[in-house]
Design goal:
Elements (H helix, E strand, L loop, with lengths): L4 E5 L26 H9 E5 L5 E9 L2 E6 L11 E6 L2 E11 L4 E5 L10 E2 L12 E6 L7 E13 L3 E7 L10 E4 L4 E11 L5 E11 L5 H12 L11
Parallel strand pairs: 3-8
Antiparallel strand pairs: 1-13, 2-3, 2-5, 3-4, 4-7, 5-6, 6-7, 9-10, 9-12, 10-11, 11-14, 12-13, 13-14
């Protein structure tokens, strides 16, 4: 019997307060088998809180001298200029929404004040869409869990109405992971995690290992920053990214 798969957008929701609590954290133990790119991806992974008390995930990035957070649009679904709290351990920053693509489910935020306890990933997108068999890594905040790291592999592609080809990743995904940026094991950006498959026979079953990813090629970073620079009057100097 044929089983039909439907796309379900990951809700950016979880329990718990949106604000970070200042508590002493234990030293994180990371196995030496994790390569340097995976460690950097994990360190740059942040939590994006929503006004309703839920959260999504994102990646802390730097392009030239602009510090940014890339996430899913349904996590940061306000109008341009809306501010969101970005959390990493005990550090909290405010970021403004500067670009959004509701069809592809991607959003970009600008951080006027950079993080001091973590380093961003450099803007390093793949020039072409990731090939089937490409091994990947991402870190995010599923449900009420703390930061978790997952590996995966590009399994295929699927079409999304109005957007075109999307990447189907074989890895784990759940509520709260929306907005996580997928990277190759060498640190190239693959795309943004935004959904999982569900199967409607028999009953509703979430396929936790079939993950939908918006390809990074959808985002033109120069176009996104140019709009921000013009709206904030930065074109004459404050940021090299605006020149």
């Amino acid at each position: 019997m044929i089983k039909y798969l439907f796309l379900a957008v990951l809700a950016c929701m979880s329990s718990g307060a949106a604000a970070a609590q200042k508590v002493s954290l234990p030293v994180e133990q990371i196995n030496s088998s994790m390569n340097m790119a995976q460690k950097r991806v994990r360190e740059a992974s942040v939590k994006v809180t929503t006004p309703g008390g839920g959260h999504g995930s994102g990646s802390y990035l730097v392009y030239k001298d602009a510090h940014l957070v890339l996430t899913a649009q349904h996590v940061a679904d306000g109008i341009l200029g809306t501010q969101y709290h970005i959390l990493k351990d005990n550090e909290v920053k405010l970021a403004s929404l500067i670009w959004t693509d509701p069809e592809a489910d991607m959003a970009l935020l600008y951080l006027p004040e950079r993080f001091v306890t973590i380093d961003p990933m450099k803007w390093n997108p793949q020039t072409k869409m990731a090939q089937v068999g490409t091994k990947t890594t991402y870190s995010g905040y599923p449900s009420s869990h703390k930061l978790m790291t997952f590996e995966g592999v590009v399994s295929g592609y699927a079409d999304k109405t109005g957007v075109g080809k999307q990447i189907i990743l074989n890895t784990y995904g759940w509520f709260g992971c929306s907005g996580s940026v997928i990277y190759t094991l060498s640190g190239e950006m693959v795309g943004v995690l935004y959904g999982v498959d569900v199967e409607y026979y028999p009953g509703v079953q979430v396929q936790e290992n079939m993950i939908w990813v918006a390809p990074i090629q959808r985002l033109n970073i120069d176009v996104a920053l140019n709009r921000m620079c013009k709206s904030l009057g930065m074109s004459k100097g404050r940021l090299r990214a605006c020149r």
